[in-house]
Batch of 2 targets.
Target 1
Amino acid sequence: MKALITFLFLAAIAVGLYYFLNKEENFDLTDHIIVTQPSGMDENAPSVSTPPSYISIEGTITNISDMDFSGIVITYKSGLDTLKVNAGNLKKGESYNFKSNTVLVRDKNPGYKLIDITYNK
C-alpha cells in the first residue's frame, strides 16, 4: 500500500512538472494605470469626501508565439470593477496598443491586477 501511494505521489509531481515546464507564453504584455479626475475639480480644495477618480489601463500586447490568434480579450480587476480590452486579432509578431474601459473609483492610488487573456486559435 505504501508503494502505491508513493507511486501515485511521484506520478502527480511528474505530471505537474511536465505542465509547468511546457507552459507556453503566447503574449508579451506591458501596461500601466491612468488615473484622472473630472475636469473642473480641484484635488486640493476642501471637501467632505474624497473627490471621485476615474481609471483606465493602457498598454501594448504583442503576439510572441508562432501562431495567429483571434478574439483576444484582456481582463483586469481593480477593486470591485472589471476592466476589459478587446484586442481583436493578432498575427505572429504583431502588436496592439490598447486602452480599457473607464471606471469610477474613490481611491487616489487604486491598484489593478491582470486576471486573464482569452483567445481563439
Target 2
Amino acid sequence: MAWLFTDPLAANLFVVGIMFASFGSYAIYRFLFNRNKMEVNMGFAYLLVATGIYALFYGILYSVIVPSPFTVADGELFGDPMIILGVASILIGVLMNKKVSLAFAGIFTFFGGILGVIYAVEGYKLGMASPLYILLLYLGAGIGGMLTAPMVVLPNKKAVQVIAVLVAISFIGVAILSFVIGSTAIGGHLVDFAKTRA
C-alpha cells in the first residue's frame, strides 16, 4: 500500500503528454492531410485506449485520496480532469476501433473542454501549483477539446483543415508543457525521496 503515499505526478504528466501528442498528431493526419488508413487508425485507437485507462485510473485515485491529509493540496487539479481525459481518450479509441463516426466523441470533448477552461481559470486565480503553467496547460486542453467538436462534424473541408491546425497547435502545446512540467517534477520528487532515506 506504500505506493498510495507517493506522488505519481511526473508519470501522469508524461502519459498526458503522450495522449495529447497523439490527439494532435491524429488531427493533422486525419483532418489536415485527409488520410484514413485502417492500420494507422487502429494504432491510434489502441494507444488512446491504453493511455485513457491509465488516466481514468489515476483520476479516480486522486479524487479518492486527495481529501486525505497525506496528499498535496493541489492534487485535486489532477483528479476530475484526469477522469474526463481518461473517459474521452477511451471513448475516442473505441469509436476509432469500431469505425464509428467521431462526431459522437465531439459532444463529449466539447463539454470536457469547457471543464478544462474552468479549471484553467480557477486554478490560476487561486495560485495553485505552477499557476501560469496550469493556466496554459488547461486552456490548451480545453480550447482544443472544444474545437474538436466542429472539426469532426463540419462538412466544409477547408474549415475542417483550419480547425485541425488549431487543434493540433493546442494539443501539441499541451503535450510539450506536460513533458516540461513532468520533467521538472522528477527532480523534485527524487530529492524528496532521497531525504527520507537520509
